[in-house]
Design goal:
The protein is α+β, with helices and mostly antiparallel strands and 233 residues long. It folds into two domains: 197 residues, outer membrane lipoprotein receptor (LolB), chain A (Clam), CATH 2.50.20; 32 residues, no CATH class. Helices cover 22% and strands 46% of the residues. A twelve-stranded mixed sheet has the order 7-8-9-10-11-1-2-3-4-5-6-12. The N terminus and C terminus are likely disordered.
Length: 233
Amino acid sequence: MKHRKILSTLLITLAMMSTLCAQPQRYEVKSGAIAYTITQSGNMMGVIVNGKGKAKTLFKAWGNIELHTEESSTTTMGRTEQERQMTKIDHGKLFVVDFDERVIYEYTPEMLKNSEYEEFAKTAREMIDATGGKKIGEEKVMGYPCEVWEMMSVKLWLYKGIMLKSEAEIMGIRHTTTATKIDLDIAVSDDDLKLPDFPLKSASEVMMEKEGEGLTPEQMQQMQELMKSFSAS
């Protein structure tokens, strides 16, 4: 359902919303592994929604390489749906795994600006400033001192740029993500950050396919040339 898509996207955005490429370090910590629990519940226009799940963020190189995974289940009107997500940041690029289609979509920083993942290119402070957010205090999460920020219907607990907790309410659904295990400055290998062995597809290809529906072969060729020029710039 649409609200599940919004909440799932919110989680990933909050967990990874430091800048992808504007700064040499996304976090003030070199490496780490953080496990989270996810809960959601509420009443959306008379429909009772309950959900739970687990997530994990694994990173190295000060967050410039980061893998985020999530598995959750949501029950709406007695019907339960399972969802699995995986995203990876690698020095400015974003990779989104589609387990249903068994394909990985690759977004360059340029392509992110025109996609549903545009918010990934912003720092936490940029998002807070853009929404008139403010720091409302300091609290500890799992013993780590965090700055607590509030923006619109979202509260964030940040430790050195890393999200350890978030609370949000969207369309009557309360969504909470809380760190349950935190290991920082640990050894993280490339194998730990591997994506599934799925075909890689660039976001520009997807855009071209959608925009190319109904075009003649000649028009498709012209569009392909334009997209190649855009990607190379």
